[in-house]
């Protein structure tokens, strides 16, 4: 039995994915999350075989969530299911440690194949995205990929950046991450300095440019 956790912030989409996966006998849904932080908490409790991630989620997006899960729970393989098919996002996703990337227009059979492949530690790429993308990525060393200013951010700075760009106040960020407001202010100043911007609008522009936050799906 393949134990799966779903992380998708849109309830109707998540319900549809669940219905597909539960239509077969060898897959069991053991948890559902509406954002990346909740997904990590569920993975910590359930230790699923596969985590299916939306790429655009509040508090912690799919790529950042995958990086955290890879570091903390190596026994869980991950699969991205998103409406986005840009080459740069596919590269970021596989660099974060996922085993598969599907677009949401994929048919039922593709999703089932991808989950089963991921459960065995195998790679799966949606046919809609050229397989040349995966071949190109796997042929290169991760260290050889172009470096950007956001690559210098710590995991905590990534979290703070996402929450700030989602419109959270310093107090709200502190409550979400269970840190002090003073610590949030320090992270915010570090972000502005590292990313070379002057204000929150600048942080938003950088976050969108480098795929740290996404327009609503």
Strand content: 5-15%
Net shape: globular
CATH topology heading of the largest domain: Rossmann fold
CATH architecture of the largest domain: 3-Layer(aba) Sandwich
In DSSP terms (H or I, runs of 4 or more residues), the helix count works out at: 10
Identify low-pLDDT runs.
Answer: none
- How many strands in all? 6
CATH class of the largest domain: Alpha Beta
Instruction: Write down the secondary-structure element order.
Output: EHEHEHEHEHEHHHHH
CATH homologous superfamily label of the largest domain: Response regulator
What's the overall average pLDDT, rounded? 85
Indicate the percent of residues in helices. Answer: 40-55%
Spatial gap, N to C terminus: 31 Å
Largest sheet: 6 strands, parallel
Description:
There is one protein chain. The mean pLDDT is 85. This protein has 10 helices and 6 strands. It has 217 residues and is α/β, with parallel strands linked by helices. β1 (2-7), α1 (11-21) and β2 form a beta-alpha-beta unit. The chain has a 6-stranded parallel sheet with strand order 2-1-3-4-5-6, sandwiched between helices. The chain has 2 domains: 2-144, 3-Layer(aba) Sandwich (Rossmann fold), CATH 3.40.50; 149-209, Winged helix-like DNA-binding domain superfamily/Winged helix DNA-binding domain (Arc Repressor Mutant, subunit A, Orthogonal Bundle), CATH 1.10.10.
């Amino acid at each position: 039995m393949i134990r799966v956790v779903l992380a998708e912030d849109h309830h109707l989409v998540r319900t549809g994915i669940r219905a597909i996966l539960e239509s077969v006998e060898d897959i069991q849904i053991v948890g559902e999350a509406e954002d990346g932080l909740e997904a990590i908490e569920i993975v910590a409790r359930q230790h699923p075989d596969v985590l299916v991630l939306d790429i655009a989620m509040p508090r912690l997006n799919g790529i950042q969530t995958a990086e955290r899960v890879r570091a903390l729970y190596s026994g869980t393989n991950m699969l991205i299911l998103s409406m986005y098919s840009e080459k740069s996002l596919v590269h970021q996703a596989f660099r974060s440690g996922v085993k598969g990337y599907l677009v949401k227009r994929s048919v039922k059979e593709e999703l089932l194949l991808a989950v089963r492949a991921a459960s065995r530690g195998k790679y799966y790429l949606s046919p809609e995205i050229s397989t040349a993308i995966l071949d190109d990525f796997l042929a290169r060393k991760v260290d050889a990929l172009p470096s950007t200013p956001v690559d210098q951010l710590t995991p905590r700075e990534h979290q703070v950046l996402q929450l700030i760009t989602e419109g959270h106040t310093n107090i709200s960020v502190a409550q979400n991450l269970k840190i002090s407001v003073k610590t949030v202010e320090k992270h915010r100043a570090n972000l502005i300095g590292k990313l070379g911007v002057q204000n929150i609008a600048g942080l938003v522009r950088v976050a969108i440019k480098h795929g740290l936050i996404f327009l609503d799906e």
